[in-house]
Amino acid sequence: MATAPRFWRENPSRYNLMGFKCNSCGRHYFPPRAICPVCHRKSVGKMEKVKLRGTGKVFSFTDVHEGLEDIALHKPYIVAIVELDEGPRVTAQIIDCEACDIQIGTPVRATMRKLSEEGPSGVIHYGYKFAPVKEK
Amino acid sequence: MGMKVGIVSYGAYVPRYRISPEEIGKVWGVDGKAMAKGLMVNCKSVPGPDEDTITISVEAARHMMRRCGVSPKDIGALYVGSESHPYAVKPSGTVVAEAIEAAPDLTVADFEFACKAGTAAIQTCMGLVGSGMVKYGVAIGADTSQGAPGDVLEYTASAGGAAFLIGSEKIIATLDLTYSFTTDTPDFWRREGQMYPRHGGRFTGEPAYFKHVISGGKGLLERTGTSPKDYTYAIFHQPNGKFPTRVAKQLGFSEAQVKAGLLAPLIGNTYCGAVPLGMSAILDEAKAGDRIFAVAYGSGAGSDAFAMTVTDEIEHFARDKAPTFKELNQNPKFLDYATYAKFRGKIALGGE
Amino acid sequence: MRRVAVIGVGDTEFGELWDSSFRELGIRAGLAAVADANISADIIDALYVGNMSAGRFIEQEHIGALIADYAGLARDNISATRVEAAGASGGLALRQGFMAVASGMHNVVVVGGAEKMTDVSDDESAMIQSSAADQEWETVLGATFPALHALIAKRHMHEYGTTREQLADVAVKNHKNGSMNPKAQFQREIARETVMGSPMVSSPLRMFDCAPSSDGAAAVVLCSLDAAKKYTEIPIEIVGSGQASDTLALHHRKDICTMEATKMAAKRAFEMASLTTRDVDVAEVHDNFTISEILAIEDLGFFKKGEGGKATEAGLTGIAGEVAVNTSGGLKARGDPVGATGIAQVVEIVTQLRGTAGNRQVKDATIGLTHNVGGTGATALVHLFRRV
Q1: Is there a catalytic annotation at residue B115?
Q2: CATH classification of C122-211+242-387 is 3.40.47.10, yes or no?
Q3: Do A43 and A95 reside in the same domain of the chain?
Q4: How many pairs of residues across A and B have Cβ atoms under 8 Å apart?
Q5: pLDDT for res B324
Q6: Helix %, strand %, coil % for chain C, to 5?
Q7: What is the pLDDT of residue A135?
Q8: CA separation for the pair C81, B32 (Å, rounded)
Q9: Testing the interface with A: which of B13, B50, B344 to mutate, by most A Cβ within 10 A?
Q10: Which of B100, C261, C306, C333 is 20 to 30 Å from A136 by CA-CA measure?
Q11: Which 3 state secondary structure label does DSSP give B79?
């Protein structure tokens, strides 16, 4: 799995959904990119770090029964593509619900959970997972 | 102390899983129902396999930040008190600091003093803010404590936490005075490398919990020149529902005063989260002018007592921006013992 | 550019081949292709080998040199290159060989593909296969390779009404074809119920919706069309080659139910060949998951977007259908040793166009297509073949 420095480098994006906005066309990107794929050279020097709000909708989802070794403890677990309000899509687990409770379109919100550990003596990796937005 | 210091914001978090004493008792041949009654604990909270003290602290701290307009860059200190830090060496606090964007211009450390490490962190923040050393300090008490399988603590050891933003502006509850009573008393301990704590059985009662909570409480009443009837709410460390109820009576507080903060019957003993979560539940409903009396207890042993006064500012406080304790406790998911044991790492998995 | 032909093909059986090492498989396929081409090894001047991850499966890199050496070609110091594009490694290797001959850079080229997947545990194999996806933003967050395809399937069902049964029909058809292929990993027919009752992998995809892990190798010999007539009476010309890329992560695609890379690679191949989809008689497409074949037959232009499921259900992609898809059994039944797959597809098309496919022969097959995909669609290779 991911090693300590490789994982640590992406902490701002994995902890806080830090993305980029192209000030040339206004599009948001996640994870951060050096240039805007639409504006190309026009976007150089115009990419601004921006923290995404963490709210969005389920775009597609699946109940994973044969999972990766590191996260086998909570099989089956739900993986989804979430479309964030600002536009970019992310791949993430959905928690705090059963697969039957969510549908394409369910509103969700980012939260922080353990993603994996490099074994019982290794570094613990934290990052975003999404939970359905609870009605008050 | 120079300027007025107090709680500017707070946030709570409790995992959604629960297990009942009956379910635990079934496995160990114990009358779980009787246990529940004796301990005054109806169920306890269980962390999911992807949760730990760090993720709980992050949730609580993010809830705290959502409710106030304070910039995280103005936070000068952040402390996480727990007896279940995920690492023995590498702080929980640094992850939380990054997760609320308070990094890098702040000081961070992890605290340990059994169940009162979170309140010790509050005291530290009081000093830092009061002396003008920092503008805002964050104190978090959170735990995912373990009870050894089959031990009586297994019925109550649970998970949860709360975070407090301490400052001197827009205070919703002033921290008027704090007093601590500390001795070296080995009532409950866990050695380095051991998975489960050990305790002295009935030794944890009178010479430990009661002696320190009562001394701490009496000491605070004396130093503030107040008596129990001056307070709207009272909260005492709650390893179960029985101890705080009894100690409240011994100190002269009524059941009504203790009710709002008494969460052990609903979620068990959240260790470093116990008094902080209770405080958050009280702040969820407190009104301007209410006075709060709190005494936390940590084995080893010591008590931290606080006298607080809720201010007018609470009427403008954006409590709705994050879940209250009641909302966090709304839709719990109950587990069977096998799933609970799997989640809590009590099943020996294949070797490396 | 010179015209290029395939003059020889060879492959090993695909499966869990405990007795065969990686190099043994690679050499066996290569020797078979060279024998089929009826050439002597000393006229081979370049070798291209498609391989996804020997470095992790068998801790061996430098595959080009390894195969050249064990094929006895190191004595001639030939030029040897390992090519990688995840699942599309074979197809990409073919394109490198095609360009080498078309440009005149080389005259006789062997293009092979090989993978040895069963020397590691299932868990390790799953981790290695997931390296075709975006590690930092898909795998690390918990998405397995099957899960990514399940996300596609779920969305395709949502947008177009594709059914669970239609997905199963892909596997049923491919197993039927595989039962007539003596080199296939699985040679037994199955029913819809087998698929739908198999263990869930990632909803809605079950075990029988997923191609297996396999060991195996395949190889082809290429030379200029002019020279080809010296070696064979039925040269099969590569008339079109198209390659395209797309975002690595599935969530960055414009439309996750369309593989733009497939569409573009096909467009480029058809343009080069001056052919259209309607001209294709037989096609080997990348069915690592049943949903992948449905996307493929839509994106290659055989059926309208959203109609792939219905077309499969109606038998339009069977051996006697409008276009015979995966007569070899596809990745599902023939097997999927990742780097070998793209070349194995060529072996099947050449066999079909030569008219030597036995029970699974498509009548009067003249134009064939291979379609090879890397990751969830980040790379696609499409090649068109014509019986000369």
Answers
A1: yes
A2: yes
A3: no
A4: 54
A5: 98
A6: 45, 20, 35
A7: 66
A8: 69
A9: B50
A10: B100
A11: strand
Write out the CATH class of domain B173-314: alpha beta
- Catalytic: B212? no
Please check the confidence at residue B101 and state whether its pLDDT lies above 70: yes
Contacting C with CB below 8 Å, chain A residues are 1-2, 6-7, 10, 31, 59-69, 71, 76-77, 79-81, 89-93, 99, 104, 115-116, 125, 127-128
Query: What's the distance, Cα to Cα, between the start and end of chain B in Å?
Result: 54
For the stretch B108-156, pLDDT in tens is: 999 999 999 999 999 999 999 999 999 999 999 999 988 889 999 999 9
- Evaluate whether A80 touches A67 at the Cβ level (below 8 Å): no
Q: Return the partners of chain B (3 or more C-beta pairs < 8 Å).
A: A
- For A136, the domain range is 1-8+53-136
**Which residue, among C122, C129, C137, C253, would best test binding to A if mutated, counting the most A CBs under 10 Å from its CB?**
C137
The H or E element containing residue C83 is strand C79-83
Domain with CATH 3.40.47.10 in chain B: 6-172, 173-314
Closest residue in chain A to residue C143, using alpha carbons only: A79
Q: Does B6-172 carry CATH code 3.40.47.10?
A: yes
- Give me the pLDDT at residue A1, please: 55
Asked whether the predicted pLDDT for residue B250 surpasses 60, the reply is yes
Whether residue A47 is found in the same domain as residue A59 = no
Q: Which of C272, C184, C225 is nearest to C102 (CA)?
A: C225
Model pTM?
0.93
CATH number for the domain spanning A64: value is 2.40.50.840
* Number of DSSP helices (H) and strands (E) in chain A, helices first: 2, 8
- Tell me: pLDDT of A34 over 90: no
Q: How far, rounded to the nearest angstrom, does the alpha carbon of residue B40 sit from its chain's CA centroid?
A: 18
A107 and A41 in a single domain? The answer is no
User: Which residues of chain B does A124 touch, with a Cβ-Cβ cutoff of 8 Å?
Assistant: 52, 54, 86-87
Asked if B16 contacts A96 with a C-beta cutoff of 8 angstroms, the reply is yes
Provide, as residue numbers in chain A, all residues whose Cβ is less than 8 Å from the Cβ of B142.
none
**Domain total in chain A:** 2
Residues A67, A124, single domain; the answer is yes
Round to whole Å and give the CA distance between C171 and C157. Answer: 17
Q: Which of B115, B125, B199, B272 is catalytic?
A: B115
C153 contact residues in A (CB cutoff 8 A): 62
Residue A13 lies in a domain: no
Interface ipTM: 0.92
Smallest Cα distance from C311 to chain A, Å: 24
Q: Is the CB of A74 less than 8 angstroms away from the CB of B48?
A: yes
Residue B352: pLDDT above 60? no
CB A14 within 8 A of CB A48: no
In this structure, are A66 and A112 located in the same domain? yes
Q: DSSP assignment, residue A134?
A: P
Question: What does the pLDDT average to over B4-11?
Answer: 97
Fold agreement (C4-121+214-236, C122-211+242-387)? yes
Kindly tell me if the per-residue pLDDT of C141 is higher than 80: yes
Assess if residue A63 is contained within a domain: yes
Locate B342 and state its tokens.
């799997």
Clarify whether residues A57 and A28 are in a common domain: no
Weakest-pLDDT range from B76-80, B173-177, B339-343: B339-343
Name every chain A residue with its beta carbon within 8 A of the beta carbon of C199.
65
pLDDT tens, B269-321?
999 999 999 999 999 999 999 999 999 999 999 999 999 999 999 999 999 99
Q: Examine the pLDDT at A99 and tell me if it is beyond 70.
A: no
| CB pair distance less than 8 Å for A74 and B49 | yes
Torsion sign (Cα): B11, B17, B18, B24? negative
- Provide the shortest C-alpha distance from residue C48 to chain A (in Å): 31
pLDDT at position C294 over 60? yes
Q: What is the mean pLDDT of residues C230-234?
A: 94
pLDDT number for residue A120:
85
CATH of domain C4-121+214-236: 3.40.47.10
Kindly state whether residues A39 and A92 are assigned to the same domain: no
Separation CA B153–CA B39 (nearest Å): 10
Q: Which residues of chain C have a CB within 8 Å of the CB of A63?
A: 200, 202-203
The shortest C-alpha distance from C149 to chain A (Å) reads 9
Domains of chain C, by residue range, sit at 4-121+214-236, 122-211+242-387
Same domain, A84 and A37: no
- Whether A24 is in a domain gets the answer yes
Nearest CA in chain A to B344: A73
